[in-house]
Specification:
Chain lengths: 361, 325
């Protein structure tokens, strides 16, 4: 009995020390809020053999954000930041939309051709082009940061500014609506009642997890984030580690762009994926990865993204208008910042430690 | 000879910026003869007054190795708030005073959070951006027209430029230029300006030298907040309306202008005079696109992006070499 309780406290202690603790607390707080103010939030139903409900929506709808957050975690762990993810999403989406209906030369595009449920490019090629374009963007960022030695914020800022211009160049400035049904599979499809997007997220997360935890890349990434000079002197190619991180982030954003454009059936170069960079950074910060780089946890960032999505959907559910939500999000950030600031953490930790000591005595 | 070389070396990026501005302008003048009119040049000041104002504030923040991402949203918030207050028949001068105070307080708060809670400026000002944009929409979700006479007077009074026939600017452009000159003097000739550069170069050593780091940092962020509020007033004057969706991602334009103007994002190096030319280059690209008529606006973004890249290249060429020698 005694040992059992001791085990419990030590488990609790370990859990509190774990990186997942604070993100989960945030999630729990939001869910408790839901339970009180929006009881319908937890309803999960089955419609046409598909699961639906707010909680499923958090994952289905939030899949792009989760993906971007995974990529962003890697970049932030190296001590950088990628502001271009929103633009990369737009580029990837634009690639897909254009390849479905490429207008080469002076071919007249009538509405009839545009709205046909056919694609002029085979689907695998479209997906490949989407992912390729995004990965190339990531490679470009990585090149600027690792080889040209430009500060990450600036290097990616360039693509953030120019990227949407490029996306508009690809779509010729139009909002391209997609009518090709097989393309919708990624954003709207279901396998065994669960959204396809969730499988994709799981696959990418697994890939990332394998990369960082089963090979030494994760260790390299953390060591670059803590001190890139000493990493270099320990014989690790710090340049290639950074290159890989940014390329991976570009890849993640490209997958997000694929899902997002498939979900909304269109590619709007100006608006698709807007504010994603902010939400993704927020997710990573909530996940407890320091902006300065170093130790990171992919799972914590995923939970961070889920927190953001849950918060967003909660606000919609209780009727906060989409625009005013921005202010609410700012309050959330403020709370997170306060939670994570050294001072308040020390205070909370000392409270816990104090209690424990008293009990021991 | 040595002194000339030293001067060129020291001011390389700035001179390159000015040179590029004139080259681009000359190309524009060659392509479109109408661009040779002096008014086209002064239009740059009319159209970019608010961008210039926020870029001035941003320059100080960037020299200090910080960043302020909230300026664009702050313009929107100021424009909506002042439009809403004017709708309630508040006296316009009081509104302007309140808005500037709000801007200063906003900047001060963000500066305090960055400095005392040791949170990255990037994250804090991002929060400020969300908050300001959201509050703007909370005040009013649609565009509010300003019908106040004083604002209209400010918006429509032309000031003729001496030595040029028929060339004019508006009062708002003058505000921007006065602010530029004042900031230049403060930055170059006062102890406060020196402290800003010192903090940007190395905050730790600035602190050890006994410089008032905390105070300076707070003042600089408050100044940036002041600039963004002022830019918001200018913005609402020139459009005689307020809307939460104004100045979307304008902070990026400001940062690009600052970088093109030769201020290094690594801190410690920079000049508001260069920022002026950064803004002008931004404006001249837009002007050429307007004169062309067939090219679309997305070329602005690509052009600004490429230019930013080139200037970062120039900067690293100059400053990296300087640090090595």
């Amino acid at each position: 009995m005694d040992t059992n309780s001791e085990n419990k406290t030590s488990f609790f202690h370990r859990f509190r020390k774990s990186r997942l603790f604070w993100p989960l607390v945030a999630l729990a707080l939001i869910l408790i809020f839901d339970a009180i103010y929006a009881p319908g939030f937890f309803k999960i139903g089955i419609l046409d053999g598909h699961l639906y409900g707010n909680l499923i929506d958090v994952f289905n709808n939030g899949a792009p954000l989760i993906l971007v957050a995974i990529g962003m975690t890697m970049v932030i762990a190296t001590g950088g930041v990628d502001l271009s993810v929103g633009a990369v999403i737009a580029i990837s989406a634009a690639m897909g939309a254009v390849l479905i209906n490429p207008a080469f030369g002076n071919e007249l595009i009538s509405n009839e051709i545009l709205t046909q449920n056919v694609s002029k490019t085979p689907l695998p090629l479209i997906v490949l082009a989407n992912l390729g374009a995004g990965t190339a963007c990531g490679l470009w960022n990585g090149f600027l940061v690792s080889r040209a030695k430009i500060q990450p914020m600036v290097a990616t800022l360039i693509l953030m500014v120019a990227g949407r211009g490029l996306a508009q160049l690809i779509t010729n400035g139009q909002i391209m609506t997609i009518y090709y049904t097989p393309y919708f599979f990624f954003g709207n499809g279901f396998i065994l009642g669960i959204p396809v997007a969730m499988y994709i997220v799981a696959a990418v997360l697994l890939l990332a997890w394998f990369l960082v935890r089963k090979t030494s890349i994760g260790l390299f990434v953390e060591s670059v984030g803590i001190n890139d000079k000493s990493t270099y002197y320990s014989g690790i190619s710090e340049k290639n580690v950074k290159l890989l991180a940014y390329t991976f982030c570009g890849f993640c954003a490209a997958v997000a762009g694929l899902i997002l454009s498939s979900y909304v059936h269109s590619a709007d170069a100006n608006n698709i994926g807007s504010n994603y960079e902010l939400d993704a950074i927020l997710s990573v910060v909530i996940g407890g990865t320091l902006m300065a780089g170093g130790r990171f946890s992919l799972l914590a960032s995923v939970i961070g993204a889920v927190v953001i999505r849950t918060f967003t959907i909660t606000m919609y559910t209780i009727g906060v208008p989409a625009n005013a939500l921005l202010a609410a999000k700012a309050v959330l950030v403020l709370l997170v910042i306060l939670l994570y600031s050294e001072q308040s953490r020390r205070l909370i930790n000392s409270l816990f430690e104090g209690k424990k000591e008293r009990r021991d005595a | 000879m040595h002194r000339i070389k030293k001067f060129l070396f020291k001011n390389g990026p700035l001179l390159a910026t000015i040179l590029i501005f004139f080259i681009v302008y000359a190309i524009g003048g060659q392509l479109y003869p109408a661009m040779r009119k002096p008014q086209v040049f002064f239009n740059l000041f009319i159209n970019n007054a608010s961008l210039l104002i926020i870029s001035i504030g941003m320059t100080l923040v960037v020299i200090m190795k910080g960043i302020d991402l909230s300026v664009g949203a702050m313009i929107a918030l100021t424009s909506v708030a002042s439009a809403a207050l004017l709708q309630q028949n508040f006296p316009p001068l009081l509104v302007i005073l309140m808005m500037t105070l709000m801007g200063i307080l906003f900047g001060l708060t963000m500066g305090a959070i960055t400095h005392y809670l040791k949170v990255e400026a990037f994250v804090v000002t991002l929060m400020g951006q969300f908050f300001a944009r959201g509050m703007a929409y909370v005040i009013n979700r649609s565009s509010i027209t300003i019908t106040d006479d004083f604002y209209k007077f400010l918006a429509l009074t032309k000031i003729h430029v001496p030595f040029f026939e028929n060339a004019y600017v508006y009062i708002t452009s003058l505000v921007a230029i006065v602010l530029l000159v004042v900031t230049f003097i403060i930055l170059v000739f006062t102890r406060f300006g020196r402290t800003v550069y010192a903090i940007g170069n190395n905050e730790q050593s600035a602190l050890l030298m006994g410089l008032p780091v905390a105070r300076t940092k707070l003042i600089v962020y408050a100044f940036s907040g002041f600039c963004s509020a002022l830019a918001g007033i200018v913005f609402s004057i020139s459009l005689t309306s307020g809307f939460g969706g104004y100045a979307l991602s304008m902070e990026m334009d400001a940062i690009a202008s600052v970088v093109i103007g030769g201020t290094a994002l690594t801190g410690g190096v920079g000049n508001v005079f260069g920022t002026l030319f950064g803004v002008l280059i931004n404006g001249i690209i837009v002007t050429i696109l307007q004169f062309n008529g067939t090219l679309t606006s997305w070329w602005t973004r690509i052009g600004v992006g490429i230019l930013t890249l080139i200037f970062i290249g120039i900067q690293s060429l100059f400053y990296v070499r300087k640090k090595h020698t």
